[in-house]
Write a structure and sequence with these properties.
The chain is an alpha/beta fold. It is built from 13 helices and 22 strands. Strands 1, 2, 3, 4, 5, 6 and 17 form a seven-stranded mixed beta sheet that branches. The longest helix has 25 residues.
Amino acid sequence: MYDLVVLGSGPGGYASAFRAADLGLNVAMIERHDALGGVCLNVGCIPSKALLHVAGKILMADEPTHGVQFSKPTIDLEAIRHHRQSTVDTLTGGLTMMAKGRKVTVFHGEGRFDTANSMTVSKDGSEEKVEFKNAIIAVGSRAIKLPFVPYDDPRILDSTSALQLERIPEHLLVLGGGIIGLEMATVYQSLGAKITVAELGEQIMTGADKDLVKVFEQVNKDRMSFLTNTQVTNIEATPEALNVTLKDKDGERQLAVDAVLVAVGRSPNGKTAGIADIGVRLDERGFVLTDDKCQTSVPNIYAIGDVTHGPMLAHKASHQGHTAAEVIAGHKVDFQPLAIPSIAYTFPEVAWVGLTETEAKKQDISVKTAVFPWSASGRAIASGVTQGKTKLIYDEVTERVLGAGIVGSHAGELLGELTLAIELGATLEDIALTIHAHPSLHETVGLAAELGAGTIT
Ligand code: FAD
């Protein structure tokens, strides 16, 4: 009997299995695929960033190069696919070694709960029973499907097939203006596709403040066309094209494109693997309900990652994984983050953490903002990346920093300082008095705080 069985080997699953093994528990992990790492390592965060790295190189050749001319890039799709796959293989191979090193038993097969203390793992017609004292559900999420989309048509892509880069369509419609859709739009645009993004909401990247998103749109206005407040109501596949019906306040119209990427969000996998049958409570959408200890309604069963409420992000999953493993090992810990960063690895990057200005307004929280434009940053000017801004959202009375957003080159890397600031309860003055190196992009964080604190004008 194992002390702990983890169902799923994504960032939540492997983080919890490894932490539990490090704490001395006898651990097994169950994964249906041959490669460990879940969506993130195999068909999510990692391959998309490998492709975005390549996209960045291509786009650089297009930008003003201040005296250095690059010729038009030559694209070798096979070599780009190889870069993506070797990045994935390096990381997933590393996980297998780490599991071995920690003596975590890995079962490859489809896991299904029989009771709250046993599971059956099925593979190729054979079955194995696995018994445990505790289990962690880390089964992740899957792409949402729309009823009118002709999924059998190879010109319809989801994020997984889009990452394969089978071909570059002349005109790609990206259905959904969230992070995943916009990252893939960036990749395909850099490889030569014309991009139209259709978004139902009033802005793309709905989680971020509008003023940050505007900078992204401005930089990309000649590369992509953004249709907001626009619903895709039908897609008709003909031999020549995919005829997409778009509906906005002016009525319906048709757009003929060569491919459609459906990126309208993801839904949790809670209604699978016999999870509900053993008494674990779910909400109506299939999220597993948990408390601050990641414990479900069945006391020895825990749940983490995309299958639980909260942002569907790898770092949220892995932190929950650590909490669940530590709770099972008897530690007194909770999962209560003040700040979970979100990053769109687009060009420019858009990154935000904690409370946004929009949320503050909705929740009637009195906040002020301090914004430092990158057009006044020495490093940004020297590097030709002045289209950016750093924004702090802080409590009107205490001046405690509650949220932050950055748009610009390397915005995601700059967000770390602000995530820590929020977690530590830092005020504007704390940040303003922290010496930031000159000239640097992170200096814009210090300068925004100084603007807010009134020490500079
Ligand atoms: P998953 O990674 O989904 O892993 C679940 C695992 O469980 C899978 O391997 C699955 O095969 C296995 N499984 C499920 N059911 C069973 C069963 N019954 N038996 C056996 N195995 C089972 N997040 C970020 O933070 N940063 C990013 O840059 C980012 N980019 C993304 C890009 C794309 C294109 C996509 C699709 C997602 C991206 N995400 C990103 C989201 C991130 O991938 C997820 O938040 C993360 O993978 C969730 O981890 P998880 O452990 O909850 O589940």
